[in-house]
Design a protein that fits this description.
binds tryptophanyl-5'AMP; 5 strands; Tyrosyl-Transfer RNA Synthetase; about 325 residues; two-stranded parallel ribbon; mainly alpha; globular; three-stranded parallel beta sheet; Rossmann fold; 2 domains
């Protein structure tokens, strides 16, 4: 049995990248493993949400996760800020995290470029908080998309450093996980790069069918293959990548063959892709609406989750404190 921790920042809604990068794996794992799933609301503070946005986003994302099928009676589902032990471990880990390595992190450099007027210390130490989230439950597997690979590397480094420094074996070194396969990167619809909330190229699980059709029909392609088995351009390869996770194998193979025979009509492919996305997201979208407004249910879920998460977290924190040398008089 593995201990699994996965999380999401509470900014923006869930998109197909989040679903196929992280949630789907988690859904497969939750029944056989010790699983924790949380909403990283402290992490979202690095971009300064208003108080209303902060709370609304947490409610929305929580509802979306539950609608996807994460079962709070099986997995531990909680809000990061309900577990203060995480922030204490974060503080302790910060003492052994060095400026140089934090400044070199790709995600930090990217964020610093995107928000030059708000390069705060929280952004710099983002990977340390993420490490605390993960190792406080002694996780061994972390279902995430490819973009989190470097953060997981940092997590292993901080865990190893603590173990070495105190000559203990407290924290396992967790690995990013996608069922023995390569970590996945769902591309956006704009021709290049990953699907992301800040990139403006995402399809959200709660998008209306009309919005989905419009977004897919507008996706970037090229002028079409002129000979058989022509290598695909990046925008077209991206469309196929999305189709591969959403549509049936038969549909995917059909359009691949059309492409390879140089007779594909991208319009037909997009129409089919849009309908397959709609078929996939509609039941989720409908459940989100029900769950979002059920305050009593949500309250019960987060209360129960916080209790279970704190039990696990406080045990590890107690061990870490003692190892470092905090002793009662
Ligand atoms: P976040 O909120 O950006 O994304 C949540 C999850 O979705 C995955 N993901 C993708 N996967 C494939 N293709 C894409 N286009 C795509 N876009 C997003 C991400 O890899 C991630 O798994 N730092 C994390 C949140 C976090 C966390 C943690 C995750 C905080 N603490 C501890 C795991 C464990 C983040 O910003 O993810």
């Amino acid at each position: 049995m593995e201990t699994v921790v996965s999380g999401i920042r509470s900014t923006g809604n869930l998109h197909l990248g989040n679903y196929f990068g992280a949630v789907k794996n988690f859904l497969k794992m939750q029944h056989e493993n010790r699983c924790f799933f949380f909403i990283a609301d402290y992490h979202s503070l690095t971009t300064h949400p208003t108080p209303e946005d902060l709370h609304g986003n947490v409610r929305q994302i929580l509802s979306e996760y539950l609608a996807c099928g994460i079962d709070p009676d099986v997995a531990t589902v909680f809000i990061q800020s309900d577990v203060p032990e995480v922030t204490e471990l974060y503080l302790l880990l910060n003492m052994n995290a060095y400026l140089g390595e934090l400044e070199r992190t790709t995600s930090f450099k990217e964020k610093a470029r995107k928000q030059p007027n708000n390069v705060n210390a929280g952004l710099l130490t983002y990977p340390v908080l993420m490490a605390a989230d993960i190792i406080i439950h002694k996780a061994t597997k972390v279902p995430v998309g490819k973009d989190q690979e470097q953060n997981l590397e940092m997590t292993r480094r901080f865990a190893r450093r603590f173990n070495n420094m105190y000559k203990v074996d407290l924290f396992p070194e967790p690995t990013a996980y996608n069922f023995g396969e390569e970590l996945i990167k769902i591309p956006g619809l704009d021709g290049s790069g990953k699907m992301g909330k800040s990139e403006g190229n995402a399809i959200y699980l709660t998008d209306d069918p009309a919005v989905i059709r419009k977004k897919v029909m507008r996706a970037v392609t090229d002028s079409g293959p002129t000979r058989e088995n022509q290598e695909m351009s990046e925008p077209v390869r991206n469309l196929f990548t999305i189709m591969k996770v959403i549509s049936s194998e038969e549909t995917y193979n059909h359009f691949l063959e059309e492409y390879n025979k140089a007779r594909i009509r991208y319009g037909d492919m997009k129409k089919q892709l849009a309908e397959d996305i709609i078929r996939f997201t509609t039941p989720i979208r409908e459940r989100v609406e029900e769950i979002r407004n059920d305050n009593e249910y949500l309250r019960k879920v987060v209360r129960q989750g916080a209790e279970k998460a704190r039990e696990s977290a406080s045990k590890t924190l107690r061990e870490a404190r003692e190892i470092i040398g905090f002793k009662p008089f």
